């Protein structure tokens, strides 16, 4: 399954990596993201980075899809490719990829749920949301958690996922 970016409802322009629509990704955003993987400064990436770039945009290609893409643009695996050669590969894999389902997200949250009890400590979750990746403000996390925290400071992640999927 693949996760896809979409506009975040709390802050214009914020991208949430696990939403099921690619409508929020425009060419300039994709090109900007592509350029972040250019370590040389020549507006190209290593072919070996094709899967990484796709994943950065929420597409979760299979190893077979990545290999097929690499073979199509660089059978030797040695070249660097420009954005204009990457884009058709990205579009093809995007069309083949299925959006993530509610169940996929729940499975992903279980990684953090050591005891498999169905909830996570809101303090730990808040830390992840405010200090890792594209950081949210405390106010944004408060909005997300509103009505979801129990008396023990825990958040049922299935309810959190339902809220995030509904608001996207």
Sum this structure up briefly.
With 168 residues, the protein is α+β, with helices and mostly antiparallel strands. Helices cover 47% and strands 12% of the residues.
Could you outline the blueprint of secondary structure elements for this entry?
Blueprint: E1 4-7, E2 15-19, H1 27-36, E3 44-46, H2 50-56, H3 63-73, E4 80-82, H4 83-96, H5 102-109, E5 119-121, H6 122-131, H7 138-145, E6 154-156, H8 157-167
Query: What is the string of helix and strand elements?
Result: EEHEHHEHHEHHEH
Which regions contain 5 or more consecutive residues with pLDDT less than 50? 1-24
Let me know the average pLDDT. Answer: 80
The whole-angstrom Rg is: 18 Å
> How large is the share of residues in beta strands?
5-15%
Count of alpha and pi helical runs? 8
Total DSSP E strands: 6
Coarse morphology: elongated
Helix percent band: 40-55%
Strand order of the largest sheet: 1-2
Note the main sheet: 2 strands, antiparallel
What are its keywords?
168 residues; alpha+beta; two-stranded antiparallel ribbon; 6 strands; elongated
What does this protein look like?
- With 168 residues, the protein is an alpha+beta fold.
- Helix content is 47%, strand content 12%.
- The chain has helices spanning 27-36, 50-56, 63-73, 83-96, 102-109, 122-131, 138-145, 157-167; strands spanning 4-7, 15-19, 44-46, 80-82, 119-121, 154-156.
- The strands form three sheets. The chain has a two-stranded antiparallel sheet. A two-stranded antiparallel sheet has the order 3-4.
- The longest helix is centred in the middle third of the chain and has 14 residues, at 83-96.
- Mean pLDDT is 80; it is low at 1-24.
